[in-house]
Amino acid sequence: MKKFAVVAAMATALLGSTAVNAADVEVIHWWTSGGEQAAVSVFAREFDALGEDKWVDTAIAGGENARSATLQRTLGGDPPGAAQFNISRQFEELAEAGLLLDLTPLATEEGWKDFIRPAAILNVCEFEGKIYCVPVNIHSWQWAWASVPAFEKAGVELPKNLDDFIAAAPKLQEAGIIPFAIGGEAWQIGGAMGVVMLSQLGKEGHEAIYKDRNLDVAGGPEVKHAIEIFKSLKGLTDEGSANRTWNDTTNLVIQDQAALQIMGDWARGEFAVAGEKPGVDYACIAGPAEQPYLDTGGDIFLFPKQDDPAVEAAQLKMASMMVNPQVQALFNNAKGSLPVRDDVDMSLADDCMKVGLEILKDPDHVIQGAGIYLTQDSIGQLDDLWAEAWANPDLSVEEIQQRFVDIIASAE
């Protein structure tokens, strides 16, 4: 396979005829769990293999902390060479201030718009007609992760949907297995509830509520049943869930102590690091529903402007490397996410990645997350509602649903 030949030519063309030397590129990110570290190591290894330039790793726990550090340093005149952000408009302050490297010439030369899909994730990188970041993956929340040995021990089949799972839960409990594993952090609870809601609403109902603000659907039977499932799941958790991290929770499934966890596809990286095999040691259940849908969140990298032309040349090499088809397959297989291009080497993809890629082929089964339609304030109100409903068993289904309707009615 031709390896990044375009990049060297692009770097030379963009920087003129001036010779440049090797450079260190500091990269800020928040990938600190075992699976995340394995994934970011793919990027570091592949970048270092391009030549004398070096990836300098700066891992900062917590996305908000890492983004804040990037903003403060870049605005303060001490920018890193590259930084991870979410697929969002979080970086626009830097673009507006003229502090980011314009990747448009590179993206045009390599045809990013021809192979990055869905188009919406590259559109996020555009500001005033120029491209300032590179999407590296597609993350979706809509997955359940099941311990195959746990279900076998209990003598029940893997569930096809959440109603099946709840029906099987008593046998799991009788076998000494935690039926439902979750951590007590608000984002884990809110994320799980979003998955439960979508599993009952489907794409049409999801858009009716979050995009169109349809209060009849928000107050309808599908939402009611989603809340009933949500309350049932709380009764299937263990006492240690209160302050547990997501990856420690995933480890309960890996150790066959818990039967099932609802978590985004980044959990797959933890199974990979543990040497677990999909279909043998664990199952990835899309949806979890018989007609699964996936949203298209994920991560981007941006490149703050540098005074050193050698660093700028290395930044362009790094951006190109991140969307190379082989690197996309290797990185996303380790990360648990899906590649941003559909021409990756499928021999490098595991069974769970293949399931996700098949779903993405059908645009009718791809959705935009609620955060695309609602302001952060409205999302925060929903997160607060689900956290309170999780913590307070005395809140009735009817009261929870009415408060949900009220939030949607006033959402911006």
TrEMBL record:
Q: Which domain of life is it from?
A: Bacteria
Q: Which InterPro entries match?
A: Bact_solute-bd_prot1, SBP
Q: Which UniProt keywords apply?
A: Periplasm, Signal, Sugar transport, Transport
Q: Which Gene3D superfamilies match?
A: Periplasmic binding protein-like II
Q: Where in the cell is it found?
A: Periplasm
Coiled coil region boundaries = none
Record flagged with keyword Transport: yes
Position of the signal peptide = 1-22
Keyword field contains Amino-acid biosynthesis:
no
Q: Which family does it belong to?
A: Belongs to the bacterial solute-binding protein 1 family.
Report the protein's function: Part of a binding-protein-dependent transport system for a sugar.
Q: Which PANTHER family does this one have?
A: ARABINOSE-BINDING PROTEIN-RELATED (PTHR43649), BINDING PROTEIN COMPONENT OF ABC SUGAR TRANSPORTER-RELATED (PTHR43649:SF28)
The protein depicted here goes by the name Probable sugar-binding periplasmic protein
